[in-house]
Amino acid sequence: MSKHADQATLVTVKTLLKRKQDGQKITMLTCYDAAFGGIVDKTALDMVLVGDSLGNVVLGMKDTISVTMDIMVHHTAAVARTVKRAMLVADMPFMSYNISVEQALTNAARLIQEGGAQAVKVEGGSAIVPQIRAMVTAGIPVVGHLGLTPQSIHTLGGYKVQGRGDEAAKMLREAKELADAGVCAIVLELVPQGLAKEITAAVKVPTIGIGAGPDTDGQVLVLHDMLGFPSEFSPKFLKRYATLGETIAAAVAQYDLEVKQGSFPAPEHTFQ
Ligand code: KIV
């Protein structure tokens, strides 16, 4: 199906807004390549995020800081080859939008034009409102991201719940600023349930939670985490829906055994 073949089933910024207005939940998962993109796009999943978590998840980096624009464009383009129905969002990586409005526009344009994304996601609040306004004005849908923002890990000092105590009012204010600047959704990561609920009620755009409880307008998880790929990362908010790590290891072990004992390839796998 081409991106324009079946407008009725395409997920767009308008779909997201309507979901919120109708009280219907929005689903989002990360995805980093064409193989997984083709699988997730066959479901009813609403949004696919090429997250800069790909640094941790598929590139073996220790955090998201080393992920570059070229890496994001490369992986977004791969996912865009198979995701034709869900809304495709690409993360703008560390320092690719913080320097100036011009820098943000140039890099967002690459993710849309070369990568094939429908929207970009940026981490942060008041400080990046001018960049968000400029991208939205240029016709680029933008998803905001508040709470635990992994690109600021050195400032935050660890992967901890954000927005407790005095920080709550600031996050609520920044969520309103992002909504006023024109974001089409806001990811809330590692935020207490009550604050996520308050922000969700206060803004007209959908909130998508990860570790933010059940009261946000939608949920997002990292694909490899929810599929049960082996990882030392096992936070409280994560639910594993499969144990693919074990399934893959068992298949590889069986292949290794059969080749070494001579039972694969069998006659049915062999040309005469
Ligand atoms: O990079 C990512 O995967 C993300 C999600 C956790 C929202 O930003």
SSE diagram, text form:
Blueprint: H1 13-22, E1 26-30, H2 34-40, E2 47-50, H3 54-57, H4 69-80, E3 87-91, H5 101-113, E4 119-121, H6 129-137, E5 142-147, H7 153-156, H8 167-181, E6 185-189, H9 193-202, E7 207-210, E8 218-221, H10 223-226, H11 244-261
Parallel strand pairs: 1-2, 1-8, 2-3, 3-4, 4-5, 5-6, 6-7, 7-8
Bound molecules: 3-methyl-2-oxobutanoic acid (KIV).
3-methyl-2-oxobutanoic acid binds at residues 30, 49, 51-53, 91, 187, 189, 210, 220, 222.
Features of the shown structure:
TIM Barrel; alpha/beta; single chain; 11 helices; 39% helix; 272 residues; eight-stranded parallel barrel; binds 3-methyl-2-oxobutanoic acid
Can you give a write-up of this model?
It contains eleven helices and eight strands. The chain is 39% helix and 13% strand. It has helices at residues 13-22, 34-40, 54-57, 69-80, 101-113, 129-137, 153-156, 167-181, 193-202, 223-226, 244-261; strands at 26-30, 47-50, 87-91, 119-121, 142-147, 185-189, 207-210, 218-221. The protein has 272 residues and is of the alpha/beta class. α2 (34-40) crosses α4 (69-80), α5 (101-113) packs across α6 and α8 packs parallel to α9 (193-202). The chain binds 3-methyl-2-oxobutanoic acid. The site of 3-methyl-2-oxobutanoic acid has 11 residues, from β6.
